[in-house]
Amino acid sequence: MIKIILVGVWVCAVTLGTVYFSVQYASAPTTPDDGKPQVAAEHVPGELVTIPMIADGAIKGYFINRLSFNADKEKLKEIKTPLKETLTSTLFDILVGSKMIDIPNTRNFELATFKAAIKDGLNKEFGDEVILEVYVEQLEYLSKEDVTRLSTKQDDKKQQKPVTVVDKNGDTAHDAPPAKEASSGH
Question: For residue range 77-93, what is the model confidence (pLDDT) as tens digits?
Fold first, then answer.
């Protein structure tokens, strides 16, 4: 009889110990592999921004883009300037006149380099590591001739679609046709 009681107590002790350690292991906080502490991030949706592409002293076309961001939630609260206006202004500063995107040769476009330049430029503007990640939702180019046709409703049959630089999946569009050069009559 004592053997049965001892075996029952031993089985209960092993079972309780197993359950206790299983619960402790399952609820242990995970640490990232890179050793950096986790940062509370907030998604900042982007607005549609149209940026002129200027070359040889004239506007050749327009970048149409929508970028969104993941930002450090605590550092975002410390920013005193209006966030969306600062983002738009900084995008203009980074992209206007930049050869970061070569429209006639979109095969050389590197999305990772583009996103890193935007992130670095914004963080430099904020003076701290506020922007954690940049997401490209839309990045297209519309030539000056197409804008003229759209605004004057001339020659609708020959109107071209915008050149997609990055598609919806974030892949570089390799089959984009080269952009036409602006005529000197404008």
Answer: 888 888 788 888 877 77
Q: How many CB atoms lie within 10 A of CB 120?
A: 13
| pTM, rounded to two decimals | 0.59
- CA 76: distance to chain centroid? 17
Report the b/e string of 77-98 with b at 16+ CB within 10 A: eeeeeeeeeebbebbeebbeee
Please give the residue range of the domain that contains residue 81. 41-166
Q: How many domains does the chain have?
A: 2
- Whether 11 and 99 share a structural domain: no
| CATH number of the CATH domain containing 97 | 3.30.479
**Based on the domain organization, do 25 and 47 belong to the same domain?**
no
Task: Let me know whether 24 and 62 are in one domain.
Answer: no
Contact at 8 Å (CB) between 176 and 109?
no
Q: Token pair 């995008």 is at which residue?
A: 91
Mean pLDDT of 26-40: 64
- 55 φ, ψ (degrees, to nearest 5): -145, 140
**pLDDT for 166 beyond 60:** yes
Calpha distance 96→113 (Å, rounded): 16
What is the chain's Cα-based Rg? 27
* In contact, 112 and 133? CB cutoff 8 Å: no
